[in-house]
């Protein structure tokens, strides 16, 4: 059995996930509204209530596309904008 489930769900703000959710299963958000959730019954119900299940490869493709778009936007900035130490080029992310 896989350790994680993958889903896409838009964070709706307060109450989207709770402290109890965090105690019941692993939960981490990524670009493109991708969520990695611990693979247990409570985690599966959380995804089913809020979004759409994805395979790991589908979720990774969504994250990659979002990051590539952000990298392209960063690359298009002027040298002056890039020189700002707070303006860091988005880096690649590999889902667990």
Describe the protein.
It is a single chain. This protein is an alpha+beta fold and 96 residues long. Strands 2-3-1-4 form a four-stranded antiparallel sheet, with helices on both faces. The protein has four helices and four strands. The chain is 43% helix and 18% strand.
Keywords:
alpha+beta, 96 residues
Secondary-structure map:
Blueprint: E1 4-8, H1 19-24, E2 27-30, E3 34-38, H2 41-50, E4 52-54, H3 56-75, H4 79-83
Antiparallel strand pairs: 1-3, 1-4, 2-3
Outline:
The chain contains four helices and four strands, in the order βαββαβαα. The chain is α+β, with helices and mostly antiparallel strands and 96 residues long.
Could you say which overall geometry the principal axes of the C-alpha atoms support?
Answer: elongated
Strand arrangement, major sheet = 2-3-1-4
Query: Taking Cα atoms only, what radius of gyration do you get, to the nearest Å?
Result: 16 Å
Terminal CA distance reads 14 Å
Structural class, please?
A: alpha+beta
Oligomer: single chain
Number of strands: 4
Helix content: 40-55%
């Amino acid at each position: 059995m896989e350790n994680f489930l993958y889903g896409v769900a838009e964070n709706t703000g307060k109450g989207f996930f709770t402290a109890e959710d965090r105690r019941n299963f692993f939960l981490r958000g990524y670009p493109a509204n991708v969520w990695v959730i611990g693979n247990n019954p409570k985690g599966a119900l959380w995804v089913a209530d809020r979004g759409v299940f994805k395979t790991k490869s589908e979720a990774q493709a969504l994250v990659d596309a979002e990051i590539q778009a952000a990298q392209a936007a960063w690359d298009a900035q002027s040298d002056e904008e890039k020189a700002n130490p707070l303006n860091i080029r988005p880096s690649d992310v590999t889902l667990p």
